[in-house]
Design brief:
The protein is an alpha+beta fold and 821 residues long. It has 27 helices and 33 strands.
Length: 821
């Protein structure tokens, strides 16, 4: 199924049905062909609309779920033909809701031919085969809806005995686990979980107790109420007995027995725990093999574990060193083999403590081997010392290291090779005694060559025998280069530490889990925390204010994906104050993987204050500018009023017309200033709004009873600065007043069309009328009238171009200029 459209193909008729009502939700092509209905017709029907159930007396048809029963259906096709069908179905999720996928099997031929042997009738089922697990379906009241053949064989009860028996669940479950089973179902239903697995005991019909593993699937209706529980059951009684037997034998074993899974000891026996001086509970489920392994052998153990788990070796046996709970070194021999435990790979094996035999073998091997050839072939300096620390044997590398000959060193003690004042001879003697007592030693000291040169050396002391006498074998190595490298590393570390601590900005270093590892002094000063207080904590939980966690998590995610990111935000100090900071997240990438990040916080509190101060000052200036525009508008209104008074007192019509034109020009400028102080933006005017109000003023002043002028405006929302709005308004004023005065003389009606639009950054104005047009003798380059002169002058002021065009019916004016940004 796909988005409600049929895309399933089968030779049988298939229906998707509503789980509760059996309304048809979809049908396949075979169903459409068989019944004769279209898909849209099917989706208006219920399965009951096709026919009804009848008793099934002659057919034995094997069902696979609760939809099949001892009934067959008598259906009618669209053309009226009667057919017999039997359904099989299963529950599935359709568009997030439970539904049934039902298969209609045509059994018309079997029903009509009663003389055929029943054994020849087809056994119809959705899935055929010997399933390894028993299948049980329960309703919401824990009554059995389906009881498979495997369930009958496994538990003894027949399907007839268990179907719809309201008390069967209590009879079936072991009484000691009944409450737990009920509670587990209730808990999973409350959490709306769809799957869970558990182990538990049940009773068979004969009274036997079996241990089973239960795989449960919960089915809900669209309201979230439980409809049924589909259960697959596996008998694990024999496996349980084997596990119990294994543990019983292991508990009494005199060697260590273990089971490792997912890198952790799932089981160890008492002997294993005793070898490492732990209690069983301290190891099981807590420690892994590498937790008990000596660090020098951890690589060997890890590689062997990896080989077995990856199939490189099914079993392996080898020796290595371990550490007990009190950190004592022991030698062990281990055997391990790969098994499958609870469906997952695991390693089971034995472990034997061979510490004493190992040391005995090493002493024996040291006593019988000849060191003559070995000495001079090894590049490290080797000394053999008796119980009095005297050199009784030295190799060639020892002579080259110190510059002395063999005759000088034999019989001497190590103090002749030590740098006086830089070597603790008493401490060196203690190392010697411990090595003589059998404990290997490793330490560093300062040596002195024959030429007086002082150098660092690493010394290893091991116990041994030489011709039957107990000795100490000392190995020395010049580590001058190593010291030089370490010194450089230390210097680099100190430089970085000083840079980190003395940086003027707050810095926090976090691991890949976003846990704080360290902070610098600037961070402590800014946020009030000292490093010890917050080490190991999540930085977002320490300084991110409530409500800002998602923003902080988004930044962290970007950084951990390997991208440096930054934001401006507020962070909270220890005492609850909010600090404005610029936050930079810088990832530390190694081999393409982010292993840590640095969080850098720049305190911008003062800058924010300065910005607020600037904003406040700007607001004050905006208020002042608005007041200026208001006063300019008022002053222009006063001038316009004076011109109007003067117009009333003028004796000649020509003077009154001149005064009225001047008044309109002033009003067009005043209207600009009015729009500016009314806007939030004091530098721009919406020219379409301005135009409509300007026309209202012109029309109220110029309209006459003789001519009825109709004005249409087609204008986009365009914003112009005051420097462009005023000239544009004056041009419109001149054009409209000129049209009113001259275009429609002797006419009762007239039309004016005004269009404003913007193309990219260009402003286009077009004014058309259906009047008598402009006189042909007008020189537009050298106009003789004030109006035309103003239009040309104002167009030049806009750095634009304009032109007049006489049309077949009227005049057209075009103006074009670039809009200021």
């Amino acid at each position: 199924m796909n988005n409600g459209q049929s895309s399933f193909f089968c030779n049988h008729a298939l229906f998707v049905l509503n789980h509760n009502t059996l309304n048809i939700l979809d049908a396949n092509e075979a169903a459409i062909e068989f019944y004769g209905y279209s898909r849209d017709e099917f989706c208006q029907m219920s399965i009951y609309d096709l026919g009804e159930k009848k008793d099934r007396s002659a057919l034995i048809i094997q069902e696979n779920d609760e939809f099949a029963n001892d009934k067959i259906w008598v259906h009618q096709t669209k053309c009226g033909e009667e057919v017999y069908v039997q359904f099989t179905s299963h529950i599935f999720s359709h568009n997030g809701k439970p539904a049934k996928l039902a298969t209609a099997h045509n059994v018309t031929e079997q029903v009509n031919n009663q003389e055929k042997r029943l054994s020849k009738f087809p056994q119809i089922q959705l899935y055929k085969g010997n399933r390894p697990l028993a299948e049980i379906i329960w309703d919401a009241e824990k009554r059995v809806l389906k009881w498979s053949e495997k369930a009958e064989k496994l538990f003894g009860w027949s399907k007839k005995e268990v179907l719809r028996d309201p008390k069967f669940f209590n009879k079936f479950m072991h009484k000691e686990e009944l409450d737990q089973a009920n509670q587990m179902i209730d808990d999973n239903v409350a959490a709306l979980k769809h799957h869970y697995t558990t182990n538990g005991r049940v009773h068979t019909k004969t009274g036997d107790v079996r241990v089973c593993e239960w795989h449960n699937t919960l089915v809900y209706d669209e309201n979230g109420s439980l409809l049924s529980v589909y259960t697959l059951v596996q008998d694990i009684s024999e496996r349980k007995k084997s596990e119990d037997l294994f543990k019983a034998l292991a508990e009494e074993s005199l060697v260590g027995v273990y089971l490792i899974q997912n890198g952790t000891f799932k089981y160890v026996n008492p002997c294993f725990a005793d070898i490492f001086n732990y209690a069983k509970g301290e190891i099981e489920g807590t420690l892994g093999p590498l937790d008990l392994t000596h660090r020098d052998d951890s690589k060997l153990v890890a590689e062997n574990l990896k080989q077995r788990m990856n199939g490189g070796a099914d079993s392996i046996q080898y020796d290595f060193r371990c550490l007990t709970k009190n950190r004592e070194t022991i030698h062990v021999k281990v055997f391990g083999t790969k098994i499958d435990y609870l469906g997952k790979p695991a390693i089971v094996g034995t472990l034997l403590d061979i510490t004493h035999s190992k040391l005995a073998f090493e002493r024996y091997q040291a006593s019988v081997e000849s060191f003559e050839d070995l000495f001079d072939s090894i590049s490290d300096a080797i000394y053999i010392q008796d119980k009095e620390e005297q050199f009784i044997k030295v190799n060639k590398a020892a002579l080259e290291l110190n510059g002395y000959d063999r005759e000088f060193l034999i019989g001497k003690q190590p103090d002749v090779l030590a740098a006086k004042g830089k070597t603790d001879l008493k401490k060196a003697q203690e190392h010697f005694k411990k090595a003589l007592d059998g404990t290997p030693q490793k330490f560093e000291q300062w040596g002195r060559r024959k030429n007086g040169e002082v150098f660092p050396e690493e010394v290893v002391l091991n116990p041994g025998t030489y011709f039957g006498e107990e000795v100490v074998i000392a190995i020395a190595r010049d580590i001058s280069k190593q010291h030089e490298v370490e010194d450089e590393i230390q210097k680099s570390r100190e430089k970085f530490e000083q840079l980190f601590q003395n940086a003027p900005v707050s810095i926090v270093m976090m691991d890949k889990n976003q846990h704080i590892r360290t902070v610098n002094r600037a961070f402590e000063n800014t946020f009030g925390y000292i490093a010890e207080e917050i080490e190991g904590l999540n930085v977002d939980k320490v300084i991110v204010p409530k409500g800002k966690e998602r923003q902080a998590q988004k930044l962290s995610k970007q950084v951990f994906e390997g991208d440096a990111s930054s934001i401006s935000a507020r962070r909270e100090t220890k005492n609850g104050e909010l600090v404005d900071v610029l936050i930079y997240g810088v990832p530390v990438n190694v081999n393409g993987e982010t292993i840590a990040i640095y969080g850098i916080y720049v305190d911008i509190t003062e800058r924010k204050k300065a910005e607020e101060k600037i904003k406040k000052s700007l607001k004050e200036k905006e208020v002042l500018l608005a007041e200026i525009h208001h006063r300019v508008k008022n002053n222009l209104a006063v001038i316009a009023g004076l011109l109007e008074l003067q117009q009333f007192k003028a004796d000649s019509k020509e003077a009154r017309n001149i005064l009225r034109e001047s008044q309109l020009r002033i009003n067009s400028i005043a209207l600009i200033h009015e729009k500016l102080y009314q806007n939030e933006n004091l530098s721009e005017v919406s020219i379409d709004v301005y135009l409509k109000e300007l026309l209202d003023i012109i029309v109220s002043s110029m309209a006459t009873e003789v001519t009825d002028v109709s004005i249409s405006i087609d204008s986009a929302s365009i914003f112009l600065t005051i420097n462009q709005a005023i000239p544009c308004g004056l041009i419109l004023n001149e054009l409209i007043t000129n049209v009113y005065k001259h275009a429609f003389e002797g006419r009762k009606t007239g039309d004016i069309n005004i269009k404003l639009k913007q193309e990219d950054e260009t402003f286009l104005l077009c004014v058309e009328d259906n009047g008598r047009g402009m006189p042909e003798n007008i020189d537009y380059d050298n106009p003789s009238t004030l109006g035309l002169t103003l239009i040309q002058t104002l167009s030049n002021q806009l750095r634009g171009s304009c032109n007049f065009e006489n049309q077949e019916n009227g005049m057209r004016f075009n103006l074009e200029f670039e809009i200021d940004k």
